[in-house]
Inverse folding.
C-alpha cells in the first residue's frame, strides 16, 4: 500500500532541533561543574554547546512551517536520529578536549553513553577531569530519560512496538487508565526517574562516597548505564559491602517497569502484586544469583558465613548488574567457571522489564514466549481444545504471541549475524560473542579482552562503528532502526 | 484425551520393528563370514536372539490390538523404536569388547541410529570389518527409519508446519494414516535405496575399495557421518572421492518427495520448489564465504590451491548443512569465524523430508519472510501482505507453529549448553557439542573437533547428549510430548 503522503521531514527536523536545545543546555550545566572544580576545560563545553545550539536553530528554522501530522515513519526517524545527533555532538567535548583523541572512540563512548550501554574505550578513567566524567555520566542519564519517556509515552502512541503497546494495555499506563495525556505520563515517569536518582545519591553519599561519585554513579545506575568514575568500576569500593548492596539494589529497582512505581504511588498494590513480569523478573534474578553463588563457593574449603556472604554479594551484584543491563563490575567474571558465562549470556539476552531503562529482549517477552511454547505442546495433544494463554490474567491474542516470537527470533538472528560480522572484522570468537551480546542488550562488559577488566579500545575501527550501530539498534528495540533500512519505508 | 493409550498396538508395532532389526543383524554376519571373522558371529547371533524374543513377545502381547492410533501412540512408537533399537544394536559393540563401556557403546549406537555420527572411538581402524559395517548400518537403518516411519507419522503428531512442505497427495491425514503411510513410504524407500546404490557405485568408480564404498554410501545417504577411517574422508586424499561425497551429501539433503516428481518428469514442480532453491543458495553462499576466508591474499596461489580450498569449503559446508559430519580437513585450525558459519548451517539444516537434522531450511526461509512481513506491516499497518511458500499462502496459525518450533529448538540449545557446561565441559565444547548433537551432525569444535572424539567427556554428558540426539532427530515434539503431564492425562 503506497503512502498518501511523503515523510514529514520538516517536522522531524524541528523536533530533533528542539531536543538538541536540551543537549545544548545540559552542556552548559556541565560548565558549572568544571567551574566548581576549577578545571580549565570548560571552554570545550561552551564550544560544543554553541555548535549544538547553532545546529538546533538551523533545524528548527528548516522545520518552522512543518505541518502537524506525524506517523510511524516520522516517529521512528525522530527517535533514531535524535540518538545519532546527540552522540555526534555529545562526542565533541571528549574529542576537542583531547580526553579521547580519536573521533571514532569519542563517538563510540558517547553512543555507549546515550544508549545506556556503558561499554568504554577508556583505559585511564581516573585521569579525566571532573567535567568530562560528569558529562560522561550525564549522557547515560539523558539517554535513560529519553528511553523512559520515549518507550513509555511516545512509542505506544505511534504503535511502533507490539509488546510495548501490549504491555501498556495490560500493566502499564494507557491513555485512559493512566493519565489522559502523553505529557502527563511523561511527567510522572520523569518524576519517578528523578526521585530514584536522588534517593540513590543520598544512600551512596551516606555510604562514604564523595558527592561527585555518588551523583555520577546514581546517574549511571538509574539509567542502567554502567559508566563509573573509576577504572576498576565498583571494585574500587571493594571494602564497602554497603555501597555494593546499595548499587545492586538500585540497579534492581531501575530494572522494574516504571509504571509499577506509579501504581505504588497511587496505592494500587494489587496491580503490583498481580504483575507477572515483575514476579518473573525477580525469580530469574534470584535464581540466577543463587546458581552463580553456588558455583562460586569452594566446597572443599571451610565454609562460614562470611564466605557465603561474599559469594552472594558478588553473584547478586553481577547478576543484578548484567540483567538490568547496567554493567557495573565488582569482580572479573572471566575468572569464574565457564558455566557462569553461559548464565551471564542468557541473563544479558533476557534483560529486565519493559518500561524500564534496561535493554535486552525483556522479561515480558520471555514469559509470553515460554507460555506460547507450552501452549504449543498442549495444542498438539488436544488439537480441538481452545486453551488461551494468559498474561496478567488477560488472554493473549495469537497475533501478539506471533509478534513476540518474531521479535525474539529476530533479536537472536541479529545477534548471530553481528557475531559473524565482528569475527570477519578480525575479533576473536569470545570477544565477538561477548561484544555483540553486550552491545545489542546495552550492558557494557563482554568477554575476554572486552570483558570486565578490559575495554573496547583495541578492537578494529570498523567494529567500533558497527557496535555503535548495534547499540543504537538494540536500544531502540530493533524495529525502530531496522524499519528505516527497509525499502518499504521509503516507498511513497 | 478421552481414551487409553493403545498399548497393545504399540507393543505389536514395536515387536514387528524389532524383527526387522533382527533381520538387519544378518548383514554383519554376512560380512564376518566374508572376511573370515567367524569368532564375532556368536555376538550377532546372541543379539539377534534377544531381538527375536523381544519382537515375538511384543507381537504376542499385542495380538488382538485395536487399530486405533493417534498422535500419542505415534509419539510413543517412534521414541521407543529408537531407544530399543539402540539398546539392542549396542550389544555387539559391548559384548565383543571393542567398546568395553556400555555408556560408550550406547552413545555410539544411538549416534548411529540418529544419523549423528559423533564417535567415542579413538582408533576406528582397529575394529573388525563386521563391526565397522554394523556401525555404518546403524546409520542406514536410522535414515531409513526417518524416511519411512517417522516422516509418515510426523504430520500426524502435528510437528511444526509439515503440511506445508509437500504436495497434499503425499501428506497423510489422521483418518487415513495407514494406506497413506504405505504410499509415501514406498516412494521414499525407493529413493533412499536407489541413492545408496548410486553413491556406492560412484565411490567405487572414484577409487574406493568395495567395502569402504559401501560403508561410506550407507553413511552418506543417511546423512550420518561414521567413516571406516579415523581420519574420515581425509584418509583418501582423493578429489574425486570428495566430490562424489559432496554431491551425494547434497542429494540426501534434498526433499525426497522431489525425486518422485523427477521420476514422473514433472520438472516444473522441482524448479518452482522454494525449499530447494534456498537450500542451494544458502549452501553456495556459505561455501563462497568460507572459500574467500581461505585465500591467502598476500601470496599468489595457483589454480590447484584454489581448487583445493574451494573443495574443502564446499565439503565442510555440505557436510554441516546436511548434518552428515564427514570431514576432510581439521577446520579447528581455520579462521574462527568459519566456525560460526558452520554452527549456523548446522542449526539451519537441509530440507524437510530428507534425512538431515536441524530446524530445516524451509522453516528458516519462512521465518525470514515473516520477519520482513512484520516490518512491512509496521510501516503499512492496514495492508494485507500474505507470506507465501511454494505459491501457497501461509496461514498465521501455521506461522505460529513454525515460530514456536524454532523458539523451542533454540531454547533447548541454550538450556543444553548450560547443562553441558555445568557437567564440566568448556564453553566452546558445550555450545558446539550441544548444537552438533541436537542437529545430528557430528562435528564439534575445540576439544570435540575432528582430531578428538567424544570419549573423554564426562559420563553424564554422554547420556545427556544421547538424549539430545533423540530429541533432535525426532524433531523435538515426539520426544518432549512424553514429558508433559497432559500427555498421560486421560
Amino acid at each position: 500500500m503506497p503512502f498518501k503522503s511523503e515523510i514529514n521531514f520538516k517536522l522531524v527536523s524541528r523536533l530533533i532541533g528542539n531536543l538538541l536545545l536540551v543537549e545544548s543546555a545540559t552542556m552548559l550545566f556541565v560548565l558549572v561543574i568544571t567551574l566548581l572544580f576549577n578545571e580549565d576545560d570548560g571552554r570545550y563545553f561552551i564550544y560544543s554547546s554553541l555548535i549544538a545550539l547553532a545546529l538546533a536553530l538551523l533545524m528548527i528554522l528548516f522545520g518552522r512551517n512543518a505541518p502537524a501530522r506525524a506517523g510511524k515513519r516520522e516517529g521512528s526517524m525522530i527517535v533514531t536520529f535524535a540518538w545519532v545527533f546527540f552522540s555526534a555532538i555529545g562526542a565533541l567535548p571528549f574529542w576537542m578536549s583531547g580526553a579521547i583523541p580519536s573521533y571514532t572512540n569519542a563517538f563510540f563512548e558517547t553512543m555507549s553513553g546515550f544508549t545506556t550501554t556503558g561499554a568504554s574505550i577508556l583505559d585511564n578513567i581516573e585521569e579525566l577531569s571532573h567535567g568530562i566524567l560528569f558529562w560522561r555520566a550525564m549522557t547515560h542519564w539523558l539517554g535513560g530519560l529519553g528511553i523512559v519517556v520515549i518507550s513509555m509515552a511516545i512509542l505506544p502512541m505511534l504503535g511502533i512496538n507490539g509488546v510495548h503497546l501490549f504491555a501498556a494495555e495490560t500493566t502499564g499506563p494507557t491513555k485512559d487508565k493512566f493519565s489522559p495525556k502523553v505529557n502527563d505520563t511523561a511527567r510522572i515517569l520523569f518524576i519517578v526517574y528523578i526521585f530514584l536518582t536522588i534517593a540513590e545519591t543520598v544512600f551512596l553519599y551516606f555510604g562514604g562516597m564523595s558527592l561527585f561519585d555518588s551523583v555520577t554513579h546514581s546517574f549511571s545506575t538509574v539509567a542502567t548505564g554502567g559508566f563509573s568514575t573509576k577504572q576498576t568500576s565498583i571494585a574500587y569500593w571493594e571494602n564497602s559491602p554497603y555501597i555494593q548492596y546499595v548499587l545492586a539494589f538500585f540497579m534492581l529497582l531501575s530494572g522494574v517497569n516504571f509504571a509499577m512505581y506509579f501504581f505504588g504511588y497511587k496505592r494500587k498494590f494489587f496491580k503490583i502484586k498481580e504483575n507477572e513480569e515483575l514476579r518473573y523478573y525477580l525469580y530469574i534474578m534470584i535464581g540466577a544469583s543463587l546458581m552463580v553463588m553456588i558455583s562460586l563457593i569452594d566446597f572443599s574449603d571451610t565454609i562460614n558465613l562470611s564466605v557465603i556472604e561474599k559469594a552472594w554479594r558478588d553473584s547478586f551484584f553481577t547478576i543484578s548488574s548484567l540483567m538490568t543491563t547496567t554493567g557495573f563490575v565488582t569482580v572479573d567474571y572471566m575468572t569464574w567457571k565457564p558455566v557462569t558465562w553461559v548464565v551471564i549470556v542468557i541473563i544479558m539476552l533476557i534483560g529486565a522489564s519493559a518500561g524500564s531503562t534496561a535493554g535486552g529482549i525483556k522479561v515480558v517477552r520471555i514469559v509470553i514466549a515460554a507460555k506460547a511454547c507450552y501452549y504449543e505442546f498442549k495444542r498438539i495433544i488436544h488439537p480441538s481444545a481452545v486453551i488461551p494463554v494468559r498474561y496478567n490474567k488477560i488472554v493473549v491474542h495469537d497475533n501478539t504471541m506471533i509478534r513476540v516470537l518474531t521479535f525474539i527470533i529476530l533479536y537472536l538472528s541479529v545477534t548471530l549475524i553481528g557475531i559473524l560480522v565482528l569475527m570477519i572484522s578480525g575479533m576473536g570468537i569470545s570477544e565477538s560473542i561477548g561484544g555483540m551480546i553486550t552491545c545489542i542488550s546495552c550492558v557494557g562488559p563482554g568477554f575476554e579482552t572486552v570483558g570486565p577488566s578490559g575495554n573496547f579500545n583495541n578492537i578494529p575501527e570498523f567494529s567500533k562503528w558497527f557496535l555503535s550501530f548495534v547499540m543504537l539498534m538494540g536500544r531502540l528495540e530493533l524495529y525502530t532502526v531496522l524499519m528505516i533500512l527497509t525499502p518499504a519505508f521509503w516507498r511513497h | 484425551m478421552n481414551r487409553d493409550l493403545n498399548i497393545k498396538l504399540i507393543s505389536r508395532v514395536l515387536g514387528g520393528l524389532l524383527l526387522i532389526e533382527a533381520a538387519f543383524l544378518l548383514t554383519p554376519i554376512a560380512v564376518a563370514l566374508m572376511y573370515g571373522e567367524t569368532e564375532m558371529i556368536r555376538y550377532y547371533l546372541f543379539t539377534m536372539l534377544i531381538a527375536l524374543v523381544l519382537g515375538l513377545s511384543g507381537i504376542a502381547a499385542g495380538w488382538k490390538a485395536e487399530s486405533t492410533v493417534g498422535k500419542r501412540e505415534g509419539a510413543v512408537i517412534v521414541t521407543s523404536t529408537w531407544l530399543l533399537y539402540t539398546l539392542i544394536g549396542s550389544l555387539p559393540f559391548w559384548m565383543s569388547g571393542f567398546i568395553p563401556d556400555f555408556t560408550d557403546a550406547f552413545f555410539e549406537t544411538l549416534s548411529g541410529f540418529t544419523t549423528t555420527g559423533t564417535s567415542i572411538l579413538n582408533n576406528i581402524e582397529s575394529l573388525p570389518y563386521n563391526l565397522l559395517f554394523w556401525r555404518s548400518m546403524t546409520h542406514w537403518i536410522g535414515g531409513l527409519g526417518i524416511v519411512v516411519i517417522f516422516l509418515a507419522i510426523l504430520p500426524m503428531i502435528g510437528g511444526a508446519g509439515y503440511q506445508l512442505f509437500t504436495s497434499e497427495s503425499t501428506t497423510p491425514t489422521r483418518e487415513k494414516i495407514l494406506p497413506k503411510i504405505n504410499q509415501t513410504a514406498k516412494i521414499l524407500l525407493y529413493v533412499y535405496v536407489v541413492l545408496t546404490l548410486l553413491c556406492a557405485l560412484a565411490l567405487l568408480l572414484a577409487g574406493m575399495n568395495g567395502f569402504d564404498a559401501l560403508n561410506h554410501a550407507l553413511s552418506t545417504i543417511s546423512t550420518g557421518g561414521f567413516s571406516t577411517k579415523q581420519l574420515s574422508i581425509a584418509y583418501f586424499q582423493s578429489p574425486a572421492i570428495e566430490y562424489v561425497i559432496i554431491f551425494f551429501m547434497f542429494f540426501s539433503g534434498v526433499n525426497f518427495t522431489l525425486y518422485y516428481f523427477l521420476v514422473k518428469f514433472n520438472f516444473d514442480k522441482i524448479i518452482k520448489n522454494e525449499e530447494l532453491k534456498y537450500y542451494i543458495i544458502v549452501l553456495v553462499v556459505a561455501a563462497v564465504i568460507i572459500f574467500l576466508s581461505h585465500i591467502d591474499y598476500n601470496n599468489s596461489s595457483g589454480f590447484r590451491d584454489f581448487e583445493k580450498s574451494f573443495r574443502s569449503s564446499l565439503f565442510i559446508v555440505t557436510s554441516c548443512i546436511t548434518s552428515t559430519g564427514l570431514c576432510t580437513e581439521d577446520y579447528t585450525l581455520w579462521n574462527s569465524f568459519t566456525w560460526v558459519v558452520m554452527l549456523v548451517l548446522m542449526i539451519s539444516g537441509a530440507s524437510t523430508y530428507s534425512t538431515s537434522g536441524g530446524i530445516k531450511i524451509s522453516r528458516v526461509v519462512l521465518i525470514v519472510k515473516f520477519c520482513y512481513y512484520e516490518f512491512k506491516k509496521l510501516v503499512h499497518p492496514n495492508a494485507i501482505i500474505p507470506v507465501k511458500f511454494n505459491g501457497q499462502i501461509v496461514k498465521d496459525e501455521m506461522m505460529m507453529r513454525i515460530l514456536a518450533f524454532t523458539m523451542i529448538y533454540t531454547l533447548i540449545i541454550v538450556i543444553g549448553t548450560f547443562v553441558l557446561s555445568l557437567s564440566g565441559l568448556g564453553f566452546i565444547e558445550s555450545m558446539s557439542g550441544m548444537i552438533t548433537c541436537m542437529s545430528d551432525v557430528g562435528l564439534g569444535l575445540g576439544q570435540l573437533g575432528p582430531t578428538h572424539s567424544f570419549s573423554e567427556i564426562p559420563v553424564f554428558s554422554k547420556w545427556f547428549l544421547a538424549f539430545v540426539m533423540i530429541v533432535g532427530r525426532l524433531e523435538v515434539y515426539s520426544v518432549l510430548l512424553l514429558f508433559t503431564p497432559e500427555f498421560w492425562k486421560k
